[in-house]
């Protein structure tokens, strides 16, 4: 079976369009498979499976040439789940590629993907291949591609914990960013990149930050992916407005522009069937390549984005309030 997967990956890689930079398709699939093994037991926050996932991601961060902001990529945080008084610990992994442009105080991109999942679901392991091993594997693929093609601006990569129970890792990251928050002008959040029957990949965010719309349209999209904009405004209905559905919500509440790349719900969402075997490998790889193209594009145009953000803030400085309960805890949609 492994030889079959290797051959398929090589064939799929050959179908990806030419780019200034390309993902390592085989490695991306290997990473996705590794993060979904039963040995990681669904990567639930606070478990041995989550620790095993962190160890794997840390090794891949190292091999991708990412630097740490301290002695380790690990950034621990505490949080209290909704409807609980118990204080728990989560651990984010945060690394970066330093910009080559010479501006130490210049604008920064933060790429995020949560590595935690549900653990066991009704006595079965929920391995979360699409949700969200796919986003983590794609993020690592982007980081690896930039290792030998360093960006002009600093790009931070964060594998976030405790997303499933309230976006806690993202909130901790934004509350204690390793650079001055004023420098962060874009978050690209990756959450579910591997399953969609129509090969549609929503890119949300431009409703709140309209200057992003033309930029998103200008990014090269790898086949067979079809990028659609939306899922970010009230017109999509209560289940279709994803402004607060994943880790980009923490950036949104801080007034930081974001783009959320992630597929619509499907039959395997939060089910034990969300396994590597149901992943659409060609779609996942084209999505990872599209995300790389997006990161490269925004790196090349980040000074313009910073100017556009400053103009929007000057015209409308207030940011809408988030989904926060009476006790001040964040409410992820579906957790009310």
Task: Describe what you observe in this structure.
- The chain has 9 helices and 11 strands.
- It is α/β, with parallel strands linked by helices and 336 residues long.
- Helix 2 packs across helix 4 and helix 4 crosses helix 8.
- The longest helix is centred in the C-terminal third of the chain and has 20 residues.
- The chain starts with a helix and ends in a 21-residue tail after the last helix.
- The N terminus is likely disordered.
Rg, nearest Å: 18 Å
Largest sheet: 9 strands, mixed
Shape: globular
Number of strands: 11
- How many alpha or pi helices? 9
Helix coverage percent: 25-40%
Flag low-confidence runs.
1-19
Query: What's the helix-strand series?
Result: HHHEEEEEEHEHEEHEHEHH
Distance between the termini: 43 Å
Structural class: alpha/beta
Strand content: 15-25%
What do the pLDDT scores average to? 90
Brief digest:
The chain is α/β, with parallel strands linked by helices. 34% of the residues lie in helices and 17% in strands.
Distinctive features:
alpha/beta; two-stranded antiparallel ribbon; 9 helices; 11 strands; about 35% helix; about 15% strand
Fold blueprint:
Elements: H1 2-15, H2 25-34, H3 48-63, E1 67-68, E2 74-79, E3 88-97, E4 108-114, E5 119-121, E6 124-126, H4 129-147, E7 155-160, H5 168-175, E8 184-190, E9 200-204, H6 212-218, E10 226-229, H7 248-253, E11 258-261, H8 281-300, H9 302-315
Parallel strand pairs: 4-7, 4-8, 8-11, 9-10
Antiparallel strand pairs: 1-3, 2-3, 3-7, 5-6, 9-11
């Amino acid at each position: 079976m492994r030889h079959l997967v290797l051959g398929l990956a090589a064939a799929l890689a050959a179908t990806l369009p030419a780019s200034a930079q390309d993902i390592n398709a085989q490695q991306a699939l290997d990473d996705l498979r590794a993060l979904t093994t039963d040995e990681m037991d669904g990567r639930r926050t606070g478990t041995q499976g989550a620790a095993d996932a962190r160890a794997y991601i840390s090794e891949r961060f190292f091999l991708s040439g990412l630097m740490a902001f301290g002695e380790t990529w690990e950034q621990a945080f505490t949080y209290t789940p909704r409807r609980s008084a118990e204080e728990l610990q989560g651990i984010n992994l945060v690394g970066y590629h330093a910009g080559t442009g010479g501006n130490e105080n210049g604008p920064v991109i933060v790429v995020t993907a949560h590595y935690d999942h549900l653990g066991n679901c009704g006595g079965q392991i929920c391995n979360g291949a699409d949700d969200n091993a796919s986003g983590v594997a794609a993020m690592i693929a982007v980081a690896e591609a930039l290792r030998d093609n360093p960006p002009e601006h600093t790009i931070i990569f964060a594998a976030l914990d405790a997303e499933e129970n309230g976006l806690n890792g993202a909130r901790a990251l934004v509350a204690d960013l390793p650079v001055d928050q004023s420098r962060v002008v874009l978050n690209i959040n990756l959450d579910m990149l591997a399953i969609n029957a129509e090969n549609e990949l929503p890119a949300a965010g431009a409703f709140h930050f309209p200057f992003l719309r033309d930029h998103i349209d200008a990014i090269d999209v790898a086949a067979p992916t079809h990028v659609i904009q939306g899922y970010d405004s009230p017109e999509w209905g209560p289940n279709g407005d994803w402004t607060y559905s994943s880790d980009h919500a923490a950036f949104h509440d801080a007034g930081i522009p974001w783009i959320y790349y992630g597929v619509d719900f499907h039959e395997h969402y939060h089910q034990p069937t969300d396994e590597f075997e149901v992943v659409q490998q060609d779609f996942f790889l084209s999505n990872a390549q599209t995300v790389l193209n997006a990161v490269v594009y925004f790196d090349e145009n980040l000074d313009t984005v910073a100017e556009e953000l400053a103009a929007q803030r000057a015209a409308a400085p207030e940011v809408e309030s988030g989904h926060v309960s009476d006790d001040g805890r964040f409410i992820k949609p579906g957790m009310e």
